[in-house]
């Protein structure tokens, strides 16, 4: 009788729970400026690197950048990027039990061509960067994960020396500082990192502009990654093909050194995404042609933040706009936008080097990846 009771309790407690350590992969795509299959959700096998498609969000336009909340409960996406009218930001509830997304709400993003989303370390605020009209918008995240109407929009007018790309301000991304007190926004058109304080009251938060940080002319600041230790930051410059290393100290970024991400000098550079391994030992950067589609691997000096080249690896496709590192550090996944494939690499934890696996995911125009282990 006692054995039967124990068995029933075991079934009751464990039988209805979802298996632990399930990993979900979220992929955002361009949809040719018309409603289409914008977001795909895959079940990712942590042992083999294989993926199984579980859900597709259809009839939505140009969901080209995704951002997952730290707890994985909510997914945020830009909507209607690269359109002639204001884009939007959508909030979704992640249903891990049924592996699908539930739309919570959608808000006007306050500008043209939303390109990047970032969430602060409290999970209460979301920043959106609008590329085409050089603007930055701030949203309050409600307790249920939905977005309030935008609370602030800042517009910038500026330019720099490459007239074909820097004729106006182009805000490409923004990051909250590790201490949560500052925002750094990266203006490709102006060759500037725009710096803000977060002015907080009991009811609201607002951005207040400080003195901008100038990058080298023609750099084209695009994406940025802070080191896990909070002491260093790294800027991927699209137009110069270089990575700038900075020391971070209480709202200041002090330039250390820059490094060519490409294997050789070219007339045109298209450096794109940048991420640091979970252990903080290695930095990864993607290069999108025209003659080189690679992931460049650097080793990070933990004392001074300087970089040492490890290798450059072909991405197995064209135009690696975005990539992601598995939370365990074991895999790196690259979204090759022009060849409609996501390539999975095994990542050596000791050397940082990448080995391509035969686990490609076929998906049209992938442009953004988020990955999360659900315990």
From TrEMBL:
InterPro entries: Cycloisomerase_2 (IPR050282), Haem_d1_sf (IPR011048), Lactonase_7-beta_prop (IPR019405), WD40/YVTN_repeat-like_dom_sf (IPR015943). The keyword Cytoplasm does not apply. GO terms for molecular function: 6-phosphogluconolactonase activity. One of its GO terms (biological process) is glucose metabolic process. The keyword Acyltransferase does not apply. It comes from the Bacteria. PROSITE patterns: PROKAR_LIPOPROTEIN. Keywords: Carbohydrate metabolism, Glucose metabolism. PANTHER family: 6-PHOSPHOGLUCONOLACTONASE, 6-PHOSPHOGLUCONOLACTONASE-RELATED. Belongs to the cycloisomerase 2 family. This is Lactonase family protein. It comes from Seonamhaeicola sediminis. The lineage of its organism: Bacteria, Pseudomonadati, Bacteroidota, Flavobacteriia, Flavobacteriales.
